[in-house]
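User: quick one, sequence for these C-alpha cells?
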C-alpha cells in the first residue's frame, strides 16, 4: 500500500499588517473544518475529516512570515 500526501503552502495576510501570534494549529484546523462545512455541507466535511486528523504542520517561520504548510494525507 502506498500513501500519498498533498502539501499546501498558505500565506496569511492580516488587514492591519501585524502578525497574530496567538494562532495555533488547533484554531487553524477548526477554521478549515468550519469553512469546508459552510461551503460543502456535512458530506464535504465528512470527506476531509480523516485527512485533517493531526495533519496540520505549522512552519517554524510562521511568526515572522505568516506561512503555514498543510499536509493532507
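Assistant:
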Amino acid at each position: 500500500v502506498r500513501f500519498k500526501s498533498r502539501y499546501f503552502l498558505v500565506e496569511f495576510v492580516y488587514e492591519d499588517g501585524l502578525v497574530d501570534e496567538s494562532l495555533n494549529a488547533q484554531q487553524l484546523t477548526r477554521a478549515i473544518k468550519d469553512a469546508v462545512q459552510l461551503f460543502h455541507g456535512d458530506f464535504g466535511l465528512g470527506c476531509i475529516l480523516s485527512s485533517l486528523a493531526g495533519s496540520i504542520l505549522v512552519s517554524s517561520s510562521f511568526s515572522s512570515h505568516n506561512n503555514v504548510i498543510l499536509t493532507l494525507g
